[in-house]
UniProtKB/TrEMBL annotation:
InterPro entries: Beta-grasp_dom_sf, Mopterin_synth/thiamin_S_b, Thi_S, ThiS/MoaD-like. It comes from Flavobacterium rhizophilum. This is Sulfur carrier protein ThiS. Gene3D superfamilies: 3.10.20.30.
C-alpha cells in the first residue's frame, strides 16, 4: 500500500494499516506527544487502533516540541 505521509509517498507491504500500526512502523520509539490528522481532521488517539488507512488519505503526523 502506498500512503502520503507528511507530503511524502511511502510504500508499505501491508494491505491494511491502522493509524497505530503505521506509528508502530514509522516511530516505534516516540509515540507520546504525537497528533495525527487524516485529510485535515485530527483523529483522537482512542480511535488509532481502529481507524483504517487507505491510499486516498492525506496523513499528517505532528510531534510536539519544546521551546520558547
Amino acid at each position: 500500500m502506498e500512503l502520503l505521509i507528511n507530503n511524502q509517498k511511502k510504500q508499505f507491504a501491508q494491505e491494511t494499516l491502522t493509524i497505530q500500526a503505521l506509528l508502530d512502523i514509522e516511530s516505534p520509539q516516540k509515540q507520546k506527544g504525537i497528533a495525527v490528522a487524516i485529510n485535515n481532521t485530527v483523529i483522537p488517539k482512542t480511535n488509532w487502533d481502529s481507524f483504517l488507512l487507505n491510499p486516498s488519505h492525506q496523513i499528517l503526523i505532528i510531534s510536539a516540541t519544546q521551546g520558547g
